[in-house]
Specification:
Layout lengths: L1 H6 L4 H31 L4 H8 L7 H33 L5 H22 L1
Amino acid sequence: MLKKLIAGELSLADTFWKFGVMGMCVCLFIIRFISGILAGKLHGVSIFTYFSKYFSFFNMNTSIVLLSFIYLICLAAFVWYSMVLLLGIWRSSSKYDKSIWLRHITRVVTVVLLFMCYQIVF
């Protein structure tokens, strides 16, 4: 399925709505959920500040370390998925021959959607 998404072999509607809109909503929900749990554990301190000032190997809080690791993996997966999604939608829209307007509107909306998602996450 991922290979077909990257190659743009899926229909434009499936690629945009299922993988684009719904996939990004699921990714954002997971990232926001984990960051909410992590923020509660950090008590208002950023991850960078925690690991640069308060972290100690001898007195380490394993739940914060584990949640930070999961959070960073989710962020990396989000960036990877957004690149795959952009490539898949772009290729799928180039094969869409029913309407040139929908082809370009989909590309513009996808770029705006990804920009908004990156604003929410980062």
